[in-house]
Design brief:
six-stranded parallel sheet, Rossmann fold, 3 domains, 46% helix, seven-stranded parallel sheet
């Protein structure tokens, strides 16, 4: 080769390298720090090492593992496989890899064979599809050195580990707690690397700051299923009821009115009830669940993106693979015992963009009381190494309810202008009754009398009195609950009966008065 040709070769190589460096997104300093930690493991651990990397939702996990794939291919001269469990995540990953200049192929249900696998350095595969192809021996993936697992807390990936026993496996998740408490992550992965925390990312304005508003909800009717979370059926019974629908609408109007809002429900019927409740109240809202046709889903999400103050009521579909930075309010219209789901739901509103540094979280499931506020520090190493300890020490719904402090909303207080004292101390009244050797039921009698007097002082006729009495539902439920605590071993059925009996007697007292 002549000198001129050689110089041209060097120049072209330099230009090509320069273009490669410019591809993709510029990583933040905290992301670069985590990359150094991860590549240190690639260089110093066995090829068959299994590592989990934790980073909060919104911290840029897809960006980071796309850059990891690019660098790994270049440094180790081996191929990378990225596993996802949803088609939306596969597409997002495919697009991001393309931005980073990584030649990749998506293995979805349409891919039956891989005659062209030599043309690609990276593959993005749906877990079930790939498992079926490998099990049926439709094809093999050759020269794979690194397997990256997105949403690694999802245990559906474990079935594929046997095909990649000699590869380095990197699981990526915001919450290193297995979705199956019987199969903890510590049994599949050797080590956990923790990224920067939510408080750090919020403080440095990488994530928006959350303001949480919690509304006390009695969850004693909810049942826990075999997966450890509340059943859809029991959730539907609670959250589809008129009382919870009214509470949701009240919370929205008090805290989120006019803001772009995403509502999470546990059950399609509940979400449809929410849709009709808001429609009847005059709000522009859409319903979305996993049965919504793709075309309609796309139209709804485009509408949601463009319209100020838009509302979506959703079920089981927008917790992952959905990124809409303009969301201003998240409403948890459900209770969950899944730490992962809790962070996923709130994370949908945490994206920081110009003009948006904060967002609201409305909690209608006692979730913040169960897990702590979204932006509190979490000991992920403890959860990873001792998941059973974390799960066993979750605060119970009964204990959460015992800590409730009912406060009458200002809007309701305003309807009792002629009443000086709206409070009644059930516990103090119970102690006094016992000290006087009276029956405990005298406490309920006194409470009903006080509620009746409040209504009578502020209404001119029976119809208005009965209407105002209905608005005391939450106050009555709180008093009945506190009375049952005084009695100790009461059943749920007793409390339900007593609340109904309380309201019946209150209505009867009002009819007599008028």
């Amino acid at each position: 080769m002549c000198l001129v040709s050689w110089l041209n070769f060097i120049l072209l190589s330099s230009i090509k390298e320069s273009k490669e460096v410019q591809k993709g997104k510029e990583l933040y300093d905290y992301q670069k720090e985590d990359l150094i930690k991860i590549f240190d493991k690639f260089h110093n651990c066995p090829p068959s090492y299994n590592l989990v990397y934790q980073l909060p939702t919104g911290g840029g996990k897809t960006v980071i593992f796309s850059e990891i794939a690019r660098r790994y291919i270049k440094e180790f001269n081996k191929k990378v496989l990225i596993l996802t469990h949803r088609i939306e995540l596969s597409r997002q990953t495919n697009n991001m890899l393309n931005e980073f200049g990584v030649d990749n192929k998506v293995i979805d249900s349409s891919v039956k064979e891989l005659p062209d696998q030599g043309d690609y350095d990276c593959f993005v595969a749906m877990v079930e599809t790939l498992n079926n192809r490998l099990y049926d021996k439709k094809f093999e993936l050759n020269s794979i050195g690194l397997v990256i697992i997105d949403e690694a807390h999802n245990n559906s990936f474990r079935k594929l580990f046997k095909y990649f026993e000699h590869c380095f496996i990197l699981g990526v998740t915001a919450t290193p707690l297995s979705s199956n408490f019987k199969l903890p992550l510590k049994d599949s992965y050797h080590e956990l690397i923790i990224g920067h925390s939510i408080p750090y990312l919020v403080k440095n304005e990488f994530l928006a700051k959350a303001t949480t508003f919690s509304y006390d909800v009695s969850l004693n009717k909810l049942k826990i299923g075999i997966n450890g979370d509340y059943t859809v059926r029991s959730s539907e019974e609670l959250y589809s009821g008129m009382q919870m629908q009214n509470k949701l609408l009240y919370a929205y109007e008090q805290r989120s009115k006019g803001k772009k809002t995403l509502i999470f429900n546990n059950g399609i019927n509940t979400s449809q009830y929410v849709y009709h409740t808001f429609k009847e109240a005059g709000y522009d809202i859409r319903h979305l669940d996993n049965t919504t046709p793709k075309k309609q889903r796309k139209e709804i999400l485009e509408w949601f993106k463009k319209k100020d103050g838009a509302i979506i009521s959703s079920v089981s579909i927008l917790t992952t693979g959905f990124d809409e930075p303009t969301i201003e309010s998240i409403i948890l219209n459900r209770a969950t015992r899944s730490l992962t789901l809790y962070y996923q739901m709130i994370g949908r509103g945490s994206r920081a963009i110009p003009g948006k540094k904060t967002f609201d979280v409305i909690d209608l499931g006692n979730n913040a009381a169960r897990f702590g506020l979204w932006a509190e520090e979490v000991d992920w190493q403890l959860i990873f190494n001792y998941p059973e300890h974390f799960l066993e020490n979750l605060i119970s719904d009964e204990e959460i309810e015992r800590r409730f402090t009912y406060t009458m909303p200002d809007e309701l207080k305003a309807k009792f202008p002629n009443t000086k004292n709206l409070k009644f101390d059930i516990k103090a009244a119970y102690k006094e009754a016992i000290s006087k050797k009276q029956k405990p039921t005298v406490v309920i009698d006194q409470s009903i009398e006080q509620h009746a007097q409040m209504v009578i002082e502020n209404t001119p006729d029976l119809m208005e009195a009965l209407g105002l009495a209905r608005e005391l539902d939450e106050a009555i439920a709180d008093r009945v609950r506190r009375y049952s605590y005084c009695l100790h071993n009461t059943t749920r059925n007793f409390r339900d009966w007593l609340q109904e009996e309380y309201m019946r007697r209150l209505r009867s007292t009002l009819r007599s008065a008028y």
